Amino acid sequence: MAERPHVATFLSTLANYNVAIPTVEDTEGAKEGKAPPKKANLGTIAGVYLPCIQNIFGVIFFIRLVWIVGTAGAIVGFITVFLCCCVTFTTVISLSAIATNGIVPAGGSYFMISRSLGPEFGGAVGILFYLATTLAGAMYLVGAVEIFLNYIAPQMSLYGDFREDNEIMYHNFRTYGTILLILVGIMVYIGVAFVSKLAPIALLCVIISIICVYIGVFTNLNGKDDVEFCMLGDRILSSTGYTICSKENINGSLFGIYCEAMENATSTNANDTIYVCDDYFETHDVQIRKAIPGLSSGVFWNNIPTRFRDKGDLITESDDPERYQPRGQDTLKALLVDISTSFTLLVGIFFPSCTGIMAGSNRSGDLADAQKSIPAGTLAAQLTTSFVYCSGVFLFAGSYDNLFLRDKFGESVGGSLAVALLAWPHPLVIVIGSLLSTIGAGIQSLTGAPRLLQAIARDGIIPFLNVFEFSNSRNEPTRALFLTLAICELGILIGNLDHIA
């Protein structure tokens, strides 16, 4: 019986894992008489499963899945997630069929497809794969900026209070996203050896964050008493502008927002001063509610119905259009829907969370037994992440209040990340972990995409791409990198993560 590898050996191979798709010189150098690169001889776990796990789990899980569950409801939300997972599952089956149909060449997914099905078919798939990988980099970088500005340092907004105007938020995303892209571009330009050192850190952040979320669901079985939001009638309110959720005429209460002193008017008389108050404020009571009632509360049943709304609608408990459509009313601190939602839109937003299944096959040349490792490792990673996503839908639906689920940016609780508030032991574990893992995923996307473009150019299928065959003295595809950064910048300039996804 063969001796099993030591833990130290396993960790060493994982630490030396190269996240990038090999360059043309890596895969064809041996044909030109050059010494072939040293193989890592990675197994299924370190070579395929863990890299796929790292790439599949992305920013959408941390900052959009809770909102998707609240908007679509538990049942439709599950269908949304399950449908996306089924699409990538069938892709994994197809990839496995190619991987087991003869010798797997070094050079990643593109080489596998083009050498098995022909360069023309491979080129068509390769271009789509390249563009998707590049725009995924834009999505990750914008997502990282959203996490940083919304949940870590909102005071660093360059254009004013973005909580009052979403356009200010998107301008910040464009500016900071561009700055982050420049920094990431410099890292990638330095070389893949430098980038590969970040892979284990990002992987560790992803795994720890997911585990902490699951632990938090069950440690908060009876809810969290320290996470509450204010309601007026059936409307959820932003937490800014007041410190006391009360209608009383005291400093820091809602009274100062919804009422104003008037001269020669007859209305509410408080402290010998005449005030005129908003009609909705006068006719409805305020209440404080738990944002996370917990699984034992039975809140799951309130989160089953779908609540698709149009942009500008009020976030309310009522499903009556007369109640959630403003119709010219002054909404003041009431939270509004920031994007018109539908089943198709939610599928489009969530689907990028299921991609990343090519991470293992991209290093086919480093695998000891690619024919065995690629199907087993990729399928296991896809099923693992699908289980986490699908179970997450029901766990989130059973843990959060519905109004809070639909508060996309956590404005009702001081701008906190919803999934972080649920996690154990502290919200910062998820905030920092999701930030680092998201930046890491963006770096990997922008490392792999130029090499993929270079491989397509080398095949000569699309003549005007031949200029991107070039590699510098350090064997880095610099021209392809510059084009990739330019396309990624176009994605960042969209500004809105939902639209990019």
Automatic annotation (TrEMBL):
Record key words, sorted: Cell membrane, Chloride, Glycoprotein, Ion transport, Membrane, Phosphoprotein, Potassium, Potassium transport, Symport, Transmembrane, Transmembrane helix, Transport
Database matches in Gene3D superfamilies: Amino acid/polyamine transporter I
Pfam families with a match to the protein in the record: AA_permease (PF00324)
InterPro entries, sorted: AA-permease/SLC12A_dom, KCL_cotranspt, SLC12A_fam
Compartments it resides in: Membrane
Primary location group: membrane
Domain Amino acid permease/ SLC12A: 48-224, 341-497
A molecular function (GO) term: potassium:chloride symporter activity
Topological category with respect to the lipid bilayer: Multi-pass membrane protein
GO cellular component: plasma membrane; synapse
TM annotation in the entry: 44-67, 74-104, 124-152, 173-195, 201-221, 335-359, 379-397, 417-443, 480-497
UniProt record, GO biological process: cell volume homeostasis; chemical synaptic transmission; chloride ion homeostasis; potassium ion homeostasis; potassium ion import across plasma membrane
Catalytic activity: K(+)(in) + chloride(in) = K(+)(out) + chloride(out)
Similarity annotation: Belongs to the SLC12A transporter family. K/Cl co-transporter subfamily.
Protein name: Solute carrier family 12 member 6
Organism whose genome encodes this protein: Stegodyphus mimosarum
